[in-house]
C-alpha cells in the first residue's frame, strides 16, 4: 500500500491528477494493476477526516474529467445491526436500502432515525448520528450532491469499522451511439480503526480513514475516450524542440535550450551534432511536441529565430530577445 498521507492534501491531489493527466504508450503498462492511496491516521473528532477524504476523492475525479460520478456511502454497523444483531429479516433491510438508494441524502438518514427497530439500538443510532454529522460537513464542502447513502453497498473487507464508500461513473464521455465502458468503481475507501493495531505488538489502536484511486481502471477509461475521439496520445511533456537545418549548430542550439530551461519552459533537442531537419520535425509530430524553435545561418545573421507550429506547419520569425515571451504567450493560449 502506498502511504502518501504525509504530503499536504492539495499537493497529493495535484500530484495524482498530474500522473493521470495524459497517459503515454510507454507509461501505461508501467502503472497497470496499481492503485494510489491516501490515508489519515490519528485520533480526531468524528467525521472531520472522513469528510476530507470524500472531498479529496471528488477533487481528483473532477480534475480527471472522466464524466459524471456518484459516491455511494454506507455504514458497516448500521446494516449489520439491522440484519444480524437486531434480527431484522434481510428483505426488510433491503427494503430500507431501496428507498435510501432512490433518494439519498441527509433527509433519509433522518428518516431512518424514526425507524422503530433502529431507534432502539445504540450502535445503529451512533452510526446514523455520525452519518448525519458527515453530511453536514459534506454540505459545507459543497459535495453533498455527489454522495448517496446506500445501504446495499458492501465492500467485503473485514477490517472496515465505520463509514465505507466507493465512487462509480454514471457514464463516460463517448461519441453518439458508442457503448460506454463498464469498469465498476474507480475509487473506494472507508474507516478502518482496528487494522493498524493488528500489526502492533502492544495492540495500540490507531484510528484510520482513507481512500484508494483505481489507476488501472482510470487508464482504461482514458484510453477508450482518446480512441473514441481520435485524440493523439502525447508521449512527452516537452513543449518546445530546439532544431536547426544546418550542420555545426550544436552550440547555438545549446544556448537556446538553456535560455528556455531557465525560463521554466519544457524544451529538448536531439542528442546529435548534425541531425537532419526532417528527422527533427518528424520527432515532434510523433511525440506531440507542439512547437519548434529553428535557428540557422540566416536567422543567426538577422538576429532572429523561427517558431514553427507543428500542427499547422506555419512559421514566423521573431527577434531573438523576444523568444521566451513569445513561447510563453503561445503556450498560455494553447
List keywords for this structure.
alpha/beta, BirA Bifunctional Protein, domain 2, 2 domains, 6-stranded mixed sheet, 5-stranded mixed sheet, 11 strands, protein biosynthesis, HisRS/HisZ, EC 6.1.1.21, ATP-binding
What would you note in describing this structure?
Helix 1 packs parallel to helix 3 (48-64), helix 4 (76-85) runs antiparallel to helix 7 and helix 6 packs antiparallel against helix 7 (122-141). With 334 residues, the protein is α/β, with parallel strands linked by helices. It has helices at 9-19, 25-31, 48-64, 76-85, 90-103, 106-113, 122-141, 195-198, 215-228, 250-262, 277-287, 297-302, 323-333, and strands at 35-41, 69-75, 147-149, 163-169, 185-191, 208-214, 240-243, 267-268, 291-294, 304-309, 315-319. The chain has a six-stranded mixed sheet with strand order 1-6-5-4-2-3, sandwiched between helices. A five-stranded mixed sheet has the order 8-7-9-10-11, with helices on both faces. The longest helix has 20 residues, at 122-141. A hairpin with a 5-residue loop joins strand 10 (304-309) and strand 11 (315-319). Mean pLDDT is 80; it is low at 1-8 and 18-33. The chain is elongated, with a radius of gyration of 27 Å. It has two domains: 29-229, 2-Layer Sandwich (BirA Bifunctional Protein, domain 2); 240-333, Anticodon-binding domain (Rossmann fold, 3-Layer(aba) Sandwich).
Amino acid at each position: 500500500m502506498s502511504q502518501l498521507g504525509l504530503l499536504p492534501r492539495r499537493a497529493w491531489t495535484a500530484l495524482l491528477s498530474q500522473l493521470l493527466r495524459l497517459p503515454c504508450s510507454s507509461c501505461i503498462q508501467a502503472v497497470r494493476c496499481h492503485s494510489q492511496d491516501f490515508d489519515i491516521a490519528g485520533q480526531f473528532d468524528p467525521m472531520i477526516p472522513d469528510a476530507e477524504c470524500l472531498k479529496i476523492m471528488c477533487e481528483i475525479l473532477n480534475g480527471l474529467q472522466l464524466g459524471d460520478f456518484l459516491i455511494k456511502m454506507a455504514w458497516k454497523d448500521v446494516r449489520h445491526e439491522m440484519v444480524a444483531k437486531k434480527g431484522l429479516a434481510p428483505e426488510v433491510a433491503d427494503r430500507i436500502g431501496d428507498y435510501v438508494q432512490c433518494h439519498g441524502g441527509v433527509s433519509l438518514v433522518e428518516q431512518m432515525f424514526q425507524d422503530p427497530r433502529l431507534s432502539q439500538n445504540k450502535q445503529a443510532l451512533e452510526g446514523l448520528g455520525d452519518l448525519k454529522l458527515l453530511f453536514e460537513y459534506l454540505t459545507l464542502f459543497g459535495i453533498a450532491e455527489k454522495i448517496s447513502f446506500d445501504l446495499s453497498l458492501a465492500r467485503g473487507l473485514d477490517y472496515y469499522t465505520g463509514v465505507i464508500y466507493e465512487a462509480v461513473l454514471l457514464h463516460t464521455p463517448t461519441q453518439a451511439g458508442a457503448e460506454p465502458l463498464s469498469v465498476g468503481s474507480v475509487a473506494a475507501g472507508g474507516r478502518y480503526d482496528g487494522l493498524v493495531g493488528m500489526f502492533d505488538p502492544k495492540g495500540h489502536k490507531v484510528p484510520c480513514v482513507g481512500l484508494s484511486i483505481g489507476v488501472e481502471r482510470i487508464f482504461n477509461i482514458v484510453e477508450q475516450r482518446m480512441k473514441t475521439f481520435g485524440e493523439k496520445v502525447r508521449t512527452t511533456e516537452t513543449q518546445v524542440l530546439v532544431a536547426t537545418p544546418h550542420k555545426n549548430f550544436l552550440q547555438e542550439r545549446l544556448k537556446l535550450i538553456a535560455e528556455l530551461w531557465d525560463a521554466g519552459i519544457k524544451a529538448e533537442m536531439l542528442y546529435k551534432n548534425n541531425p537532419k531537419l526532417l528527422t527533427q520535425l518528424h520527432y515532434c509530430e510523433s511525440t506531440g511536441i507542439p512547437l519548434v524553435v529553428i535557428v540557422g545561418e540566416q536567422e543567426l545573421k538577422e538576429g532572429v529565430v523561427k517558431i514553427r507550429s507543428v500542427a499547422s506547419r506555419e512559421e514566423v520569425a521573431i527577434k531573438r530577445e523576444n523568444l521566451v515571451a513569445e513561447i510563453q504567450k503561445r503556450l498560455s493560449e494553447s
